[in-house]
Design goal:
Blueprint lengths: L15 E3 L2 E3 L3 E6 L6 E6 L3 H18 L6 H17 L1 H9 L6 H20 L8 E3 L5 E9 L2 E5 L5 H14 L3 E5 L6 H12 L7 E3 L4 H9 L6 E5 L2 H14 L4 E4 L5 E4 L5 H10 L14 E5 H15 L20 H16 L3 E4 L14 E4 L6 H4 L6 E7 L2 H8 L4 E2 L1 E5 L3 H10 L4 E4 L15 E2 L2 E2 L4 H6 L2 E9 L1
Parallel strand pairs: 7-8, 7-10, 8-9, 10-11, 12-13, 12-18, 13-16, 15-16, 18-19
Antiparallel strand pairs: 1-2, 3-4, 5-6, 6-22, 11-21, 14-15, 17-20
Helix pairs in contact: 2-4, 2-6, 3-4, 3-6, 4-5, 7-8, 9-10
């Protein structure tokens, strides 16, 4: 299989995807390739009327298809067919993803697309295996808890992993019997559109998966504030999540799942395996140029191994070489846009101005495209912007501690609590500290999600509400009704 392609040669989906067909609109937003800066295409912006058209299509499709009341195994089979088509058309999807995103095409084929198909199959299996509960009640009565779909789920997906994030949102919603209106990022629209097209080809009734294009202030606000949207699912920044909560509160109360920002600590004790730990720390910040919410961007090391680990990391951070996302061999990923690169560099320079030491990196690569050098920063205080702010780039801070309590104090963040990494050979310490770390997920002697989709993900504090993945994500797409019958 040849992965490389000409970015200007692709046939791009055009328009919104509503009720099983493409709906044209006036192109308003240019979509650029971060690998080169060139304009690849343009997309329309769905206004309130277009969002209403998508929501109406979703409600009508639910009623006409009987999707919520369909035999659960029929929903399961349709989702499995969708996953099969995604795998069969992996190269097309990966190219549509790579052309405007930070995802190298080869990694998208073998990673993102394959994981998305796995996720869809995982959630499909809940359709005929999760239901209500019979509950104990007084003699002469019959009590049970019924689980039912909400109706129409409004979803907003981020730009950093467009295919898999869309799968996170659409698959559990459909498996639970809902329809979906989803807005992908305006920077990475096309792979999600093609996914929706494949859903219809798989036999999922037209109108159950609708994709509307546009920005947050217009399209995103129209989705989250629409009275016909019964539940909202969002992945993105904490600031955007707060705006969504405000909009929902202003326009009508509805449940929401929010996976938001992170500033995850990597807590390393001096008994850790240095080789394994170095590998994990590298994987925790450098893939996708650090543009993932669970990035381990705060490396906190016990003093006894700090110098040795800093030397190893400096060597690793100096090695990556960038390449366009459409190249045959994967290279270091670009930053999604020039404004985002300038923001990353601004935080790095502000950290330097406050007395931090740049051990390696600290500047963009000298080449075309939005590529930023892997950056390791030492000598930071708790109020340094490199420590306090989510950078969302290939930038990690390096801090040292002596005692366990000092390490835990550095690991705590006043704002975020998404994930944490813990590295030690001491099992008792590991079990104790997993309880004390303030994070929704803790990884011990590893870092990053696996393909065990049964493990839910979601943050504490300002890192979010609710859970994605796992049984919890399926349950989050259903509401319960208590029933008590006197016999």
């Amino acid at each position: 299989m040849t992965f490389a392609f000409d970015p200007l040669s692709l046939t791009l989906p055009q328009g919104h995807f509503i009720d099983g067909a493409y709906v044209q609109g006036r192109p308003q937003i240019e979509v650029r390739a971060p690998s080169s800066g060139q304009v690849i295409g343009h997309i329309p912006v769905a206004d309130a009327a277009m969002v209403d058209r998508a929501v109406t299509a979703a409600r009508q499709a639910l009623a006409a298809s009987g999707w919520a009341g369909l035999h659960p195994r029929d929903r399961l089979r349709a989702l499995h067919r969708w996953a099969d088509l995604i795998e069969a058309d992996a190269l097309t999807l990966a190219r549509l993803e790579a052309v405007c995103s930070s995802r190298p095409v080869a990694q998208a084929v073998t990673g993102d697309v394959a994981v998305t198909a796995d996720q869809i199959r995982f959630f499909a299996e809940f359709a005929d295996k999760e239901g209500g509960d019979l509950v104990p009640t007084a003699e002469g009565s019959f009590g049970y808890i019924a689980a039912e779909p909400y109706g129409v789920v409004g979803a907003i997906a981020p730009w950093n992993f467009p295919i898999s994030m869309a799968g996170w949102k659409i698959a559990p919603a459909l498996a639970a019997g809902n329809a979906v209106v989803l807005k992908p990022s305006e920077m990475t629209p096309w792979s999600t559109l093609y996914m929706a097209e494949l859903a219809v080809r798989a036999g999922i009734p037209a109108g159950l998966v609708n994709i509307v294009l546009g920005d947050g202030p217009t399209t995103g606000a129209a989705i989250t504030g629409h009275p016909g949207i019964d539940k909202v699912s969002f992945t993105g920044s904490t600031r955007a999540g707060a705006a969504i909560m405000e909009n929902i509160a202003r326009t009508g109360i509805k449940p929401m799942t929010l996976e938001l920002g992170g500033k995850s600590p990597m807590l390393v004790f001096d008994d850790a395996d240095l080789d394994m730990t170095t590998d994990c720390l590298e994987r925790g910040i450098l893939p996708n140029a650090g543009q993932f919410c669970v990035a381990g961007s705060r490396i906190i090391v016990q003093r006894g191994i700090a110098d040795a680990l800093a030397e190893r990391l400096g060597s690793r951070f100096a090695k990556p070489r960038p390449a366009p996302t459409w190249a045959e061999e994967p290279g270091f990923s670009p930053i999604i846009s020039e404004p985002q690169l300038r923001r990353i560099d601004g935080i790095v320079q502000a950290a330097r101005a406050q007395g931090a030491e740049i051990l390696t990196g600290g500047a963009r690569f000298d080449r075309k495209g939005s590529f930023y050098r892997p950056t390791l920063i030492a000598g930071v205080t708790a109020d340094n912007p490199a420590v306090t702010e989510e950078i969302f780039g290939p930038v990690a801070t390096f801090q040292t501690f002596d005692t366990e309590d000092e390490g835990l104090a550095l690991a705590r963040h006043p704002t975020y609590g998404l994930c944490a990494g813990l590295f030690t050979r001491d099992l008792s310490r590991a079990l104790c500290l997993t309880r004390r770390l303030e994070a929704g997920t803790v990884w011990v002697n590893r870092y990053g999600r696996s393909r065990d989709h049964i493990l839910p993900t979601g943050g504490w504090k300002a890192s979010g509400l609710g859970k994605d993945l796992g049984r919890e994500a399926f349950a989050a797409n259903r509401r319960t009704k208590s029933v008590l019958i006197d016999i």
